[in-house]
Amino acid sequence: MTSKIRQLFQEELEQLAQIKSICNDQQYKNNELLDHYTSMANIFERNLQSMMKMTKISDSQQLYLQEIQHELEREIEERIKAEEKVADSYKRHRRNQFLLDLAEGNRSFDETASNTARQLKLYLPTMFHVFYLQLTSWQGIPFSRSAVDAAEVQAAIDTLVDKLNGCQRLVAWEWGDGIGLLHPALPNETKEQQINTGLGLKQQLARSFSHIEFAVGVAGKQGKMDSFAHHCYQARAAAALGCRLWPGRAVYHFHDGQAYQLLYPLADGQDAEEFIERMVGNLLDYDRNNNTDLMITLKRILQSSNLKVVAEEMFLHHKTIVSRKQRIESILGTSLEPFDVRFNIAIALHLLEFRC
């Protein structure tokens, strides 16, 4: 009986030694809670050693000691998990901030940045395509930060970023209402190949995160680290513009925007608003006050080679279109014949389309 009791004591001491080893791990150095657990384990160890000398222990005392030990083990395990979660979150934040600074042009990729990437264990591809995954729908509803649970969305984005970074050779980071992504590129990949890669990414995420919808923007061509910010801008602009102009598509390539990509960054500025007002403000007011649709006719006139084509497209008589053109010119106070007038009005209409 005595030997059996001493064996139980010895087993308890061995388990306590394992707990103390965990608590003394260097990664938890200066952790007040684990220091407290270590102190508790030392006290418990001394008590056991004292009780071993007595060689007698009741069944109830033995159960009580085991319960204390198991509770201590559970608390230490939960604390370690919490510490690991905090460490993962901190690591993700540092990677995100580093890549975000590069993407927004706040930092150049010099030798210092290269060293930082190695410290963060970021294995950046030499040549890559940049994709931007813009969050457009959450649980079947058009995405809006003000209409969702911010903590739930943040948790989902964190999970997505971790999942993508877990894929071989992909580098992902949180960026605005979406995720930036570097994908390794092969020399001379075509636009179609880039789009197919974007479609593959979209389908992969849809299988794992069916409650989230993304619009995928693709930069114009493959890039290198010295042009990181430029290509990141293109990918994000492609997604933003594509959602406005072609909402039915799954992937938007920067080159599809053509001249629209030059105008889009200007659309929300004060200068653009004043330009729109100068060019077509009077016609907008006229349509609004008289419940007419002369703006539609103006667009067709600018898009067509002659008024006969406009009449056929709108299923109206040629004279009706001529009359509408004259009324539009009267309201705008200018002829629609000169090239520069047509050009400036067309620019104003495109800017207006972005702002709607």
From TrEMBL:
Membrane spanning stretches: none
Pfam families per UniProt: HTH_30
InterPro entries per record: CdaR-like_regulators (IPR051448), PucR_C-HTH_dom (IPR025736), PucR_C-HTH_sf (IPR042070)
Origin: domain of life: Bacteria
Domain PucR C-terminal helix-turn-helix: 295-350
PANTHER family found in the cross-reference section: CARBOHYDRATE DIACID REGULATOR, DNA-BINDING TRANSCRIPTIONAL ACTIVATOR ADER
Entry protein name: PucR C-terminal helix-turn-helix domain-containing protein
